[in-house]
Each structure stands twice: as structure tokens, then as C-alpha cells.
Amino acid sequence: MEGTGARKITSLDPGDAAEIEQDVDEILGSIPDHVWNGRSLPVPVEEIAREVYGLRICVVSHDQMREVVADSLCDGTVSGLLLTGIGEIWINEDELQDPQWGAQRGRFTAGHELGHFVMHQKSRPAIYCRSSEAGESLDTEPTPRTVPEVEANTFSAALLLPAPLIRAELDVQGQSDEESISILMARFGASRKAVSRRVRTLREIT
Ligand SMILES: [Zn+2]
Q1: Torsion, CA 17, CA 21, CA 23, CA 28, rounded to 10
Q2: Which end of the chain, C or N, has fewer beta carbons within 10 A?
């Protein structure tokens, strides 16, 4: 984990983002059929974590999370943790409380932690976290984060909102952006923010 003073960014260089996109595309393409057929939605992040990576997703209390993570590792509220030593992804139960957005947020956090597992794992057991994005809205710029954090978010978006499946939806004629986004949110089990950002990103890289 990078210490304080690590460079903070809001988005990756296009080349780095494209590389993650390609890696995720390969991962999704190699998932065994009984785990995911490549089409059904939402993308089953929990099953992928368990069947492909041997990681269990657990919902835990804020206090349990604070017991394993030092304040200095994660600013603010901890949304999720990856504990590579025991092979678990922890999702903060507070995060799931919101009846409207909880499930979507939990899915994105799970994808984020899976991204750390795939991209940043070291040989020693380690803990990775995701801090909450409280106060961050669609109208504000993304909060600057360290490179691994932005990479993990990029991974999660690519995994839960796969480019080919999103593009197929966007190609439907006569649908406004607003309509498309609402449909995508329901179909992919993602928040408005995640979908809006994903659509914007995919339009930029076509
Ligand atoms: Zn993280």
C-alpha cells in the first residue's frame, strides 16, 4: 500500500485504462459457463469471486472492519476490504443499508476489491480497502485517489458493466441518454453514477 504523499489522480492515462479494459475482457471471456454465460445480467460478481478466485464475500459491521484496518490505511468510512491472507472480501453492512442503492454499491465495492486481488496482490498477505464516496455526486468531479484505487474502480466498472454488453444497449435506436441510463442501471445492477461514468468513458474510447 502506498503511504501518504502518494500521487493522487481522478482518472487513469488512456493507455492504462485500455489495458485494464482488455484484461477484464479476457477474464470475462474465460469464466466457465456454469459460473456465467457471458450474457445474463447482472454480472454475478459474488459467484465470479468465489468460483474463479476462491474469494468469499462477507458482510461485516463497521466495528469489525475497524479492528483490522488502521485509520491511516483508509480515509473516512471503510466500504470494503480485501484480506488476501484469508481469501475474503468484506463489505461494510452500513453500505448495504440504503434500500435503493445499497445492493448496487455493495456490488461495485466487491468488484473494486476483486480488482485489487487481480492487479495488486503481493506475495505477502495484505489488506486493501475502499473508502466511501460520501459527498461525491454526479455533478462533482471524482475525488482524487491514489493510482491503485482508481485502477480498482476502473476494473470494477469494466467487470460489472462490460463494454460489449453496454455498447449493445446504447446502440438501440430512438432511446434518449436518460432512458438508456435508467435501463442500464436496472439491467446491470449499478448506480446512476457508475453507469453515467461508464457510458461517458466508453464514448470517449470508441
Ligand atoms: Zn481500494
Answers
A1: 160
A2: C
